[in-house]
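Can't paste images in this forum, so I'm doing it all in text. The chain is below; anyone willing to post the predicted structure tokens underneath?
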Amino acid sequence: MSFSSLSLRQKGLLMTAAGPLIISPDALLIKLVGMPDSQVLFWRGALFALGMLIVLLLRSGRRIGTMFRRCGLTGLGVAVFFGLSNLGFVLGNQYTKGGNVLMILAGTPLIAALLSRFFLHERLPWRTWLSILLCLAGTSLIVLDDAGPGSWLGNAFALLSAVSMAANFTLCRTRPDIDMSPMLAVSGLFLIVVAWPMATMMGGILLPSVTQAGWLALLCLVLLPLGFTLIQRGPLYLSAADVSLLMLLETVAGTLWVWWILEEQPSLLAFIGGTVVLGTLLGKSLIERRLERQAGGSSPSDARSAARP
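Text version of the structure:
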């Protein structure tokens, strides 16, 4: 089966799923950088903004200004929510266990589904709700060994990250014909504004070493811009809940990266949880592909997506 024979929804699934896999070394590279969180936030914001601009220039050239203008005020909201999600993720890992952060982030699809139902009046099929519950259970098994009571502040930051990411995807669905990925560059500037005073209170902005700069460049100039460009385009084709579900691939792949490079071997429960998540996402995709074929080779979302960039 060729790529051109797939429906718009199936192409959107493949494109969006590639995003979390590209950014999956995020947690590993942050560990390898080994800088204080305020420094990580500042350089993450600055390099990510630069990386996004490079991607946009390669994609659109002189039309880059038009792409930003099309996003409008909705795009500013997307930038703020995406920036808050990054802020919550980094600070959540500072104040509580990484397992707690990932477990709370696993609730992003459920939050996105509820936001879409309340604000957009989107009715999700039973298979999506079942997939959300199964993936939540699977992700919980992955991070169970690292979970703990932690700190209420760290848990609150993790919840901020989950709610903000879900709100970002839901807000994108209000303008389903507009590619909001250019606004991710603006979210990088948001991180700079937040991180600057935090770093100043701790002695100012520090220049990374050559090794640290290399890891930061790989993560923030290459992987994050490419991965999040694909993810942010997901709401052009999929519901906010479906995009959030695919984000869970990062948790599974990220665990494998840490195991391979740092030799932090996952537990048996983590392997079982990863299998549950991957099996659920694959099963849901196959079911929807079959339903599309029975309906004549197109999904209801294809008609809405036909005019999208």
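Residues 298-309 have pLDDT under 50 and may be disordered. Residues 3-295 form one domain.
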